[in-house]
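Appendix B. One record, verbatim.
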Amino acid sequence: MKCGHKHRRMCRSHPTPLCPPTTNNIILPQPPYIHPPDPPKKHKASYTFDKECCGSILLQGEQSEFQLWELDVLSTQTLTQISIFINDKSTQALEIDVVGITTKHMIVPPGSTVNYIGQSVTAVRVPSQGSDSTYIEGKYVISTTLTMQS
């Protein structure tokens, strides 16, 4: 009984009755081990949706810090657009902090609109500002696109 080609390669250095010695001592390389492909990953269902928030702003006199908007959900991707308009009758500019990985400070002059588009925005705040004669009136729209896993 002769052993197969693969078995012969493994036992050339010590012949057995089932595997007679060979005359050449060439050791053939073993074929590389081929890993089976990874099983397909199960993808969780994801949902993408848009949300919009809008409102009015009115500051008279000194104003302590307040928050216009906050994101309090876990999402894999967030895109946010912020538009703020301040009426030309306002006595001073409005300061806004856009909070995310970093904080972006924006100033909206009277009679102007400021826009911001960014990712990973978690809050929009109006820091403390104003004096006894301050009057700021305006409007804001905050739109966000969220992608959430189920």
